[in-house]
């Protein structure tokens, strides 16, 4: 069932403005829930969502919309370390015609969002696409060619793509291209009229490093060269192939995984804990609302195929709508008064924690709104309360070391029962973390989860392996000689709470364990990790007890119950090819701590992982076995640990 479409309103879309300067005052939107009388206020039907947001309506000429989205893409296609952020919002209706399709290309820090209550309320007759980037820099031989390896930080959600490539010739006309890697989400998308491909096979196939789809549908999906991928609660008619670690949970039509690892699929019939991401929509009266889906267990398939996604609706007037430059004191004051928080696109310098203390508070970012730590602050703290939902933000470390970038629950909390709810877990959806890259970053831990009953639904926690910080590169490689001692990130994620679930768990390049799991009854579905590229010496990559390196995934020795399904750990020690890591995973040897379908891989030669878990599993060292038909060494796999 689809919600009733309202007639398009004659209006002029807001134009993208200049990047906000420091000190811009916050914007407070006050809107009432729509009623028959009086008429909705202008702020309820046409709120100010910041100069980084453009709202389109279907009465606009296709050529005008096309020119706007093309201009934003031209700015963002190569802006990997840039500071601009954009949200492209489409009111209910159809965009593009059979003869003049709307073809949207999505660059860095750009989010394309339908404003319907249902995915069918907004239709893009055309395409919403990401293509390979092409490089030709002989001084960086690793970055010559065309690939999707760095196509990070973007998203599409809550709309139908009726694939129409009229006007595009040759290879590009065959499908909707979505050639992406980490920190990219596709949610609540219905792909009709053509196929979806996760690689750009017109200038490839070449390197692509995995992404995330949830609550979406497509008749056919081409995986292609995606090294790993996680798909959750969706419908697929056909999936083309696997590479190293393709994982499905609650997906109708997912491929069978019985011949793992010959074909490295991992398929769960249901998702153990799920909650779809909140979404902005416009109701039949033209009033802006936020739908907050409910949490559920053991789910399968789409949330929207039989009507409105289960959950609650919050008027946008109940949100504090902020722009960069707002003070943390103002934000915290509004949160304390019971407001939710909407962060419009931009980079927010945070020198005092934003503190969410009230249960069921929603913090929603548009256009990958970014919180940047200043002076060693923890940019976001969530109290030990149930039902908080944080979605669609990036949290960056700053030059002064922080103890953490996001804390859920109080660290070192007393042993009294925590205020959590298994039926209403605090949830992080599309929340990304970055240490280094656009500027020097330092933190002890990126994400610290101290509360019980927390759901992490898609995160990329990244200590940057490249950036524009200006490090010395006189060694003639793509690597650097200073990053290890300058961009400090010791641990990516620390989980101290019980019954914490993570689905779509990307954590990479930290200087000790990437993940440390101390809580009981934890469950992870899909884990992706690259060990740090840049330890200068083996001494720098040796634990205090003499163990060579730190396992990417560490479950504490006293944990009795834990499950990981579908994990991949990769080595690429470009700054010192002799680096050795003893284990990809380390877990206590107890019957109820179980790893299913886990693997390790050497990416292209430098560095060694001696075993998969606890000394079990084959060594990977980048050397192909005799007779191997490929130029790279095959991964090492374990079907289950404990073995037997």
UniProtKB/TrEMBL annotation:
Please report the name of this protein according to its UniProt entry.
Adenylyl cyclase
Protein species of origin:
Aquipuribacter hungaricus
Task: Enumerate the residue ranges of region (Disordered).
Answer: 404-424
Q: Where is the composition biased (Low complexity)?
A: 410-424
The keyword Signal is assigned to this record = yes
The UniProt keyword set, sorted, is: Signal
Signal sequence: where? 1-36
